[in-house]
């Protein structure tokens, strides 16, 4: 199985100074109106599920569409959404029965044909910026009657229920959405818990409860607004001035620290899934030599990066698999222990490699935020302080960065990662498969055998053993070094409830907020 994944979305939206009342309706100010107002620096690339594969777009779409399966608040095991029940009938066949009486927000019935249409459309359009790659293992979708949907897979895949719970599985109205192209404009027709009442690109999105919704989500508010900001400084001003009730994604570590002591505000943190890796291209010197990669892994001090660069808003990560995910093993801590320049020197000496080793390290401030420069500098200082490396740090704009990281142009580079669903396979497969989605130049047949083993089994013990073996082998070869995992942070005004639940690792849960 091969899937291409999304990386952490850029946060560059042009801010237009509008009042909340510009969204229409009897909402009043953020502090006194009926709607819960959430400020963010995220962006929306598309309102069509087939064309959206970024966090900001998924925040909107996940709110107004249903899926066959979904992740419940705080949960990592998918549960039925539009479905009444789903199960594997054999390792390559996943069968679902839909709930009765489902309708779209325009009154059209939602049937098995709409589900089949949605998946056929997603795969058929295969939009460059869409999530169709998540369905690479889907052979065909079959509809039987109004309520039976059968997914036929190319290869056994125990993670397919999780794939269905991502926004690659959003169900669209076959009477509204064109079969072979994206829907023009801002019209959104779904069957989710809210409808998109008003939308102004780069300004705001206004949601109201969908009275015809039938599903497991319990709404704590009947209306909320997302207001978009250009950067963290304007978002900070908005939350301090009471223009928004909640501010979420993305603040700098300095902003978070300063807001912790602000009157009338509370900093709420939850487990995040954003990760940062140091990636090597094993086809490019000097990191084509495993001892060089191992020596770097032996020197990097994750605790220092978390404290000195991010003020404790991230936590050290010792596996490609995220903290808190079943099946994770701290493979890099087990292999390398604490940072130790003497051990690193021995690794290089035993391999006959002269020091200092010259290394180029690339990062992109336009995509990974202002702290990424400090992070790159910190890594350079750590490596050079060992006396074993001479590091040349270079920055590139995001558009060029995406091309270069796939074209064997970088020996080493920074990469942010935001998994699609909470399963270890989603943190491993995209990088270690025979056709990885970015340039690592690394191939290991044993890892690929273990990937096939864990993906093809529904037995958790079998999967855990294969996943542990993958993580240990990857730490030994060190083509990718995990550095940190972020915490989710929201700033909320006194009186706002539910922010702790809204900070869900899978997606921000707007329906948990109330005031």
TrEMBL record:
Main location: other
Domain Solute-binding protein family: 78-435
Domain of life of the native organism: Bacteria
PROSITE patterns in the cross-refs: PROKAR_LIPOPROTEIN (PS51257)
Residues in the signal sequence: 1-22
Keywords (A to Z) from UniProt: Signal, Transport
Subcellular location: Cell envelope
The UniProt record lists the keyword Kinase: no
Protein family: Belongs to the bacterial solute-binding protein 5 family.
This protein's name: ABC transporter substrate-binding protein
Organism: Streptantibioticus ferralitis
């Amino acid at each position: 199985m091969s899937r291409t994944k999304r990386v952490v979305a850029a946060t560059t939206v042009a801010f237009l100074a509008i009042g909340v009342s510009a969204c229409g309706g009897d909402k009043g100010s953020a502090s006194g109106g009926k709607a819960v107002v959430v400020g963010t620096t995220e962006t929306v690339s598309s309102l069509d599920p087939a064309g959206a594969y970024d966090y900001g777009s998924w925040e909107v779409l996940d709110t107004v569409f249903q899926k066959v399966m979904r992740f419940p608040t705080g949960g990592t095991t998918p549960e039925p959404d539009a479905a009444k029940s789903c199960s594997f009938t054999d390792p390559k066949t996943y069968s679902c029965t839909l709930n009765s009486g489902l309708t779209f927000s325009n009154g059209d019935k939602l049937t098995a044909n709409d589900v089949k249409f949605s998946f056929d459309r997603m795969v058929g359009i295969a939009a460059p910026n869409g999530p169709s790659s998540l369905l690479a293992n889907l052979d065909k979708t079959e509809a039987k009657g109004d309520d039976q949907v059968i997914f036929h897979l190319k290869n056994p895949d125990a993670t397919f229920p999780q794939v269905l719970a991502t926004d690659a599985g959003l169900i669209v109205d076959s009477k509204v959405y064109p079969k072979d192209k994206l829907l023009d404009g801002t019209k959104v027709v779904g069957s989710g818990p809210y409808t998109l009442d008003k939308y102004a690109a780069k300004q705001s999105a206004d949601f109201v409860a969908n009275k015809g919704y039938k599903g497991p989500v319990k709404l704590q508010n009947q209306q909320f607004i997302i207001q978009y900001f250009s950067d963290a400084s304007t978002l900070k001003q908005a939350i301090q001035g009471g223009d928004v009730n909640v501010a979420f994604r993305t603040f700098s570590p300095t902003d978070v620290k300063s807001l912790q002591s602000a009157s009338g505000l509370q900093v709420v943190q939850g487990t995040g899934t954003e990760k940062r890796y140091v990636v090597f291209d094993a086809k490019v010197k000097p990191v084509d030599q495993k001892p060089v990669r191992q020596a770097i892994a032996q020197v990097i001090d994750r605790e220092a990066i978390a404290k000195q660069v991010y003020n404790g808003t991230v936590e050290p990560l010792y596996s490609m698999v995220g903290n808190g995910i079943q099946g994770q093993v701290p493979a890099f801590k087990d292999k390398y222990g604490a940072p130790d320049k003497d051990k690193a020197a021995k690794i290089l000496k035993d391999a006959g490699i002269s020091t200092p080793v010259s290394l180029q390290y690339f990062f992109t401030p336009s995509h990974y935020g202002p702290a990424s420069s400090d992070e790159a500098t910190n890594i350079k200082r750590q490596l050079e302080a060992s006396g074993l490396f001479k590091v040349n740090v270079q920055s590139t704009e995001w558009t060029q960065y995406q091309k270069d990281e796939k074209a064997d142009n970088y020996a080493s580079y920074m990469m942010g990662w935001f998994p699609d669903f909470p399963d270890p396979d989603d943190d491993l497969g995209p990088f270690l498969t025979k056709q990885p989605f970015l340039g690592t130049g690394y191939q290991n047949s044993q890892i690929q055998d273990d990937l096939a083993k864990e993906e093809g089994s529904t037995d958790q013990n079998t999967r855990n053993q294969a996943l542990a073996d993958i993580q240990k082998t990857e730490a030994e070869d060190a083509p990718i070094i995990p550095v940190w995992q972020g915490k989710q942070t929201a700033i909320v005004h006194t009186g706002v409830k539910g922010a702790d639940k809204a900070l869900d690792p899978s997606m921000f849960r707007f329906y948990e907020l109330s005031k």
